[in-house]
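Worked example 3. Consider a protein that binds FE2/S2 (inorganic) cluster.
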Amino acid sequence: MKITVSRNGPYIVTGKVPLIVSEICDDEEGYCRDWLEVKRYPLKERYALCRCGHSKNKPFCDGTHTKIHFDGTETGDYKPYTEGVNIISGPVLTLTDNKHLCVHAEFCLRAGGIWKLVRQSDDPEARNTAIEEARNCPSGRLVILDNATEKAIEPELEKSIVVVEYPPRDEHGPLWVRGGIPIESADGKKYEIRNRVTLCRCGKSKNKPFCDGSHIER
Ligand code: FES
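Given these inputs, the predicted complex is written out as structure tokens:
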């Protein structure tokens, strides 16, 4: 399985990568809480996903990028996740936070926020909520580590691409690349393989090919 960024064009996906549409669901207080799979496309060996944001056949590319002269220049860096992270240490858990990767999915705000929960992680409820919030963070900005093992507590994710939708706010989010699928730039360089990665599909990100939350109009 592989995703290749094409120059000023779509993502070329190869190797029968499952393609899913999922919605972010709120809890009763309006905080982002969970994911709901609403569609699964038939498996295909190869397909092209729009990254300019203008296809009439989303999530697939329909060639519109050439008509609009899409500038898909990649400015995302190749540095490892761990470079530039803030580290928040709690009694049982540690949080690493790479703000540069934020896509504003906002799973991290519930119950006082993951930063506070980690500092209270000797409380089982706070600990479990912090782990759940990090697990749901699609971009992988937030990673929780177990202090006892010093290992990341990562969810087991099916290798797949999820088209993120957020109906309560009428937002059309990024492509959530799950399970460590390799992503290669148009120049043939390899981005760091991570379990949770979000790719821009609106064409507006300043951190292409990665999403930077620019799809959100506030
Ligand atoms: S990248 Fe081809 S239509 Fe958007």
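Take a moment to read the result before moving on. Residues 9-10, 50-52, 54-55, 61-65 surround FE2/S2 (inorganic) cluster (CB under 6 Å). The chain has two domains: 2-26+34-76+158-199, 86-152.
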